[in-house]
Amino acid sequence: MDIVAILSLPLLATAMGFALSIAARFFAVAQDPIVDSINELLPNGQCGQCGLPGCGQAAIAMSEGKLGPDCCPPGGQALAQKLSKLLNVPLSNDAETKSLPQVVEIDPERCDGCTRCFKKCPFDAIVGANKQLHGVLSDICTGCGMCVSVCPQDAFAYKTDPIFSNGWAWPKPELH
Amino acid sequence: MLFSKRLIKGGVHPNGQKKLSNNNAIVKLAPPKRLFLSLKQHSGAPAKAVIQVGDKVTAGQMIATGQGGSANIHAPYSGTIESIAEHVAAIPGGGKQTMVQLLCDSEPNNNYIKLHHHYQSRAELIDIIADAGIVGMGGAIFPAATKLRSTLNKEIDTLLINGCECEPYLTCDDLVMQEQCVQVVGGVRYLLEACAAKKAIIGVEDNKPLALQALIDATSEDDNIEVQTLPTHYPMGSAKQFIQALCKVEVPKGKRSTDVGVFVQNVATCAAIYNALRFGNAMTQRVVTLSGGALEQPMNIEAPIGTLISELVATCGGLKLSAARIVVGGPMMGHTITNMHSPIMKGTSGILFLNEDELPQTTSSPCVSCGRCVAACPMGLLPNAMAELIANDDLEAAQKQGLNSCLLCGSCAFICPASLPLTQYFSYATTEIGRQKKMQQKAQLARRLNQQRTRRLEQEAIKKAAEKAAKKAARAAGGTRPQRSPRVPKTAKQES
């Protein structure tokens, strides 16, 4: 009787293992593994600036070649370069993709503390309270513009990211 | 000489132009009326002002304290603090820095506040150097005490004192070695104690015979201090090359000189250390070279930190020609400024007023792949290949080629027959890589915050649903409406 008890569990485990491996093969959802790699890089703000509702869809579209590697404004040039390397797609050289990363700032004269913007901010980059002046944490803000679209006071303005506008740096040499 | 083994890799031989300014003794500047003391005289975070506008300060009084590895700043003369405001600085790009504006007393008060300068241990000795606000005067402007503290848990075999001054035009270290050799050697003795090194070697290029002789005389009684002559060869004075020339060891990539048992310090810094430890004087003065073909009388001036460049020019008798370019530092690694109303800082070794003939050709032509830059690079890099990668925005590949090892010494751009701005490419790429790294960190932070937010919203939704369900259940069971809880103002934002 003991032998039945000892063998029953290993046998059961082996049988289930086989069943699982067969199921994994037959019921697998085919997805390009590159989608995951792209998703890993994207900021996941779901801001919709690429024209698609979310970052997941954008990753699929990029893997299918429907979107370029420079489609994500919050990610900026750094992300575009990484994606272009990952997807093996060259970056276009027009000025628009080379524009510096942007962040938003709130005009204190206009903000009336309606809290619409910080509820919308996908990155918690806006702080404030009811009827209080709101502020943007430029260390976090990706310039996705979700807040700009909901502000009834039109209090938002874009400016260059302080990482790029603070201090002076050697410009890239231009050859004559 | 022709067949002697070269001490360092690569390098160039620019025209020294030392004779312009090394014939005259150091001139001591009369106390200026106003001084502008920048709060960022050193590498690292800016110092924090400890005085208020309107305060009376005495000479030697500390006006700003170093924080997070930065250096203290002291008032060179007694006077009144006029303002603490932004003022144009002699930094690349001509930007502004926060400066303490000091209106000096018309009759200088001779009550000089001395530092407490008695010590009983190495750590205490280093503390005095920190109190004196001494920074490396060789170019890196790194606080000397921070550098010395890193030797406390490392074994230092040799102390190297850098008297190369390989940049053309500059002669301030040369004159300091000639006139203040006692202070320099005294500082070397203190440094030997501070870093517990067995011996010290003072390395001086052979174009400074007077300085060499003065040092040999001053060290005649020291068995553990040696003076060595080095060939005149740019960039001999760069720390890595200097160590290679004197100790025959190469500092591995990504390591510091202290990792190979060597500690390097500049000669003028030694003199400042001596003044601090022997007399309790804070670092409030320095010798600056004023030179260049456009200057009436090139000379070396000992001036208080914060003196306006325009006042130094006046001491030199003004300009005899129109200055086509004003350079702070040496011509190889310095940077141009446009405003003479900026003050000198602790790290300002020279100010050059170059005339039209002294400028390099600026129109560049395509690279002909002659390879001279490769031969000239003291770090064994491929400047032409790296510049091409950077021009094509492939910064990552440039880094793989060794961009991080670049000293920005300018040898490649100096030797380039096509006058390509090679060093400028590397300066650009270095800052650009730093910015992109910051952007990457920012993106990661944004991603993390977004995940936290999503989780929080989910939890809030679950909580809300549970509350609703509980209310419904209570209503169904009791039949009466539950009493409304007192209204609590909604918190605007939950801590994530």
TrEMBL record, chain A:
It holds the Pfam family Fer4_21. Residues 102-131, 132-161 form the 4Fe-4S ferredoxin-type domain. Residues 30-89 form the 4Fe-4S domain. It comes from the Bacteria. Keywords: 4Fe-4S, Electron transport, Iron, Iron-sulfur, Membrane, Metal-binding, Repeat, Translocase, Transport. InterPro entries: 4Fe-4S_dom, 4Fe4S_Fe-S-bd, 4Fe4S_Fe_S_CS, Elect_transpt_cplx_RnfB/RsxB, Fe-S_Ferredoxin, RnfB/RsxB_Proteobac. PANTHER family: ADENYLYLSULFATE REDUCTASE, BETA SUBUNIT (PTHR43687), FERREDOXIN III (PTHR43687:SF1). This is Electron transport complex subunit RnfB. It comes from Psychromonas marina.
UniProtKB/TrEMBL annotation, chain B:
Binds 2 [4Fe-4S] clusters per subunit. [4Fe-4S] cluster 1 binds at residues 367, 370, 373, 416. NCBIfam families: PRK05035.1, rnfC. Its cofactor is [4Fe-4S] cluster. It is a peripheral membrane protein. Its EC number is 7.-.-.-. It is found in: Cell inner membrane. Residues 358-388 form the 4Fe-4S ferredoxin-type domain. PANTHER family: ION-TRANSLOCATING OXIDOREDUCTASE COMPLEX SUBUNIT C (PTHR43034). Residues 463-496 are annotated as: Disordered. The complex is composed of six subunits: RnfA, RnfB, RnfC, RnfD, RnfE and RnfG. [4Fe-4S] cluster 2 binds at residues 377, 406, 409, 412. Keywords: 4Fe-4S, Cell inner membrane, Cell membrane, Electron transport, Iron, Iron-sulfur, Membrane, Metal-binding, Repeat, Translocase, Transport. It comes from the Bacteria. The keyword Electron transport applies. Coiled coil: none annotated. This is Ion-translocating oxidoreductase complex subunit C. The gene is rnfC_2. InterPro entries: 4Fe4S_Fe-S-bd, 4Fe4S_Fe_S_CS, Ion_transpt_RnfC/RsxC, Nuo51_FMN-bd, Nuo51_FMN-bd_sf, RnfC_N, Soluble_ligand-bd. Pfam families: Complex1_51K, Fer4_10, RnfC_N, SLBB. Part of a membrane-bound complex that couples electron transfer with translocation of ions across the membrane. Belongs to the 4Fe4S bacterial-type ferredoxin family. RnfC subfamily.
